[in-house]
Q: What sequence folds into this?
DNA sequence: AAGTGGTCTAGACCACTAC
DNA sequence: TAGTGGTCTAGACCACTTA
């Protein structure tokens, strides 16, 4: 077995945090791949020269961060969360009967244009900033439920295209991460009621001028950096908005 | 010091979960009040006849649930959920221009009646249960903004009256706590769009039949016990609903 | 200085899984 | 049956707060 140099350092950082970081480093170096089992706890404790309790506390946190998954009797595995529910964390639309499903995105429009004053405020952009705007129709159980109008800075999302959006394998925020290195870690949403226009009513299949639930969203990356502005219109005939995250 | 009967039971439930439950029960019984310090870890470990490590694991979870707050060197405190600066934790209505104010409640109706089927489900009530229903008009900056229709079990809220509601000094959830020993620690809200009836339109001063933002809320005490069912209608002309808590 | 929560140890035994 | 993670112990010492 490979013997790790002791993780103990003179810094004030708790030992279990150092162990956690060491495991993260090994994951980043590809020592263990997604879906693979990592070595058993006793072995890791020996390798890092810490007690089982300390090792477990480090693994506890990594499991809480959904980076590792533990299965009693089987082992600890590197979590796979490319296209899993991790990226649906901010999707809070549920069917009124309580059933939960993933949305399927259908891209309707894509263009590059000057940012509006509102977008400059929400995305903290400069005076001559440009944005990509695209429109997404969200389908749940073959119901056309929500229409999103999304704006992102052309600087942060260089060379975004309709093709890239339509060809993405999983969620939009997953694309942001893999294609542009942008991690959406939090969103701020404001809800009100608004009427829809002709095009939107056609896409959603509801009468023009009807009042729907309108959601304004600013999505944030690390350090409270706003990265996406989004206006959504939700048809709440069969679906509703849940104040807390839902586990699909 | 009061000696607790050992929490050890023959069930398969882990000891630290039993300790967590025992602490929750003591909180529910009012042994320690919000903002107070609970006894030190070593004392609690002695009282429950468990090791420090096990006691800490129970407290860890309660801290993660934001029911307790730990401060190194000072002690562990019962989190303040709905009084003083956290009065309006669950009040998520903000003015669109961003300014924040306290709502002023105006009580419109009060009655005792049989629980509906929906209320029995949401509040987990028995077949012949009764509820108090009361209606509150919420005013912000002299705007009539929201109308709440609130139902609570007559068993949990014995002898609630319009007088008690109207004479309360602070928030409704503060009254629940001081008058009935009920702590609201979490709410689950579902948002949709609905039209309002004649009486509601009169109280809110908007046209009859208009579509407003409708909020269904179940409020929970410790142990996920539902204690209040509420249907609100919010006029979003000048105000909106924020997905996250706002600091007033 | 005394008391609090935070970290860490070096084990033990249990519950579950795979073979 | 062997090996895994899950629970639990009975301490020790450290970091921080308060007086």
A:
């Amino acid at each position: 077995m490979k013997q790790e140099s002791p993780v103990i350092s003179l810094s004030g950082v708790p030992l279990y945090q150092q162990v956690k970081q060491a495991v993260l480093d090994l994951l980043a170096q590809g020592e263990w791949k997604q879906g693979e089992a990592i070595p058993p706890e006793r072995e890791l404790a020996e390798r890092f020269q810490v007690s089982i309790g300390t090792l477990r506390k480090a693994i506890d946190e990594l499991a809480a961060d959904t980076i590792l998954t533990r299965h009693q009797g089987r082992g600890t595995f590197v979590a796979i969360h490319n296209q899993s529910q991790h990226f649906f964390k901010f999707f809070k639309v549920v069917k009124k009967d309580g059933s939960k499903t993933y949305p399927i995105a259908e891209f309707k429009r894509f263009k590059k244009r000057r940012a509006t004053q509102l977008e400059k405020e929400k995305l903290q952009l400069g005076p001559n900033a440009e944005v990509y705007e695209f429109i997404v129709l969200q389908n749940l159980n073959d119901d056309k439920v929500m229409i999103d109008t999304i704006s992102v800075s052309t600087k942060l999302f260089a060379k975004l295209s309709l093709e890239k959006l339509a060809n993405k394998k999983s969620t939009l925020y997953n694309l942001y991460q893999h294609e542009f290195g942008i991690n959406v870690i939090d969103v701020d949403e404001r809800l009100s009621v608004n009427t829809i226009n002709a095009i939107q009513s056609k896409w959603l299949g509801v009468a023009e001028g009807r009042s729907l639930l309108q959601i304004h969203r600013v999505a944030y990356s690390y350090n409270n950096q706003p990265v996406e502005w989004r206006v959504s219109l939700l048809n709440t005939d069969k679906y509703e908005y849940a104040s807390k995250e839902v586990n699909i």
Notes: The interface with chain B takes residues 53, 92, 94, 96, 187-193, 210-213, 216, 236, 240-244 of chain A (CB under 8 Å). The helical segments of chain A are 15-28, 41-48, 52-64, 117-123, 162-167, 172-180, 198-204. The two ends of chain A are 40 Å apart (CA to CA). The first strand of chain A starts at residue 37 and ends at 38.
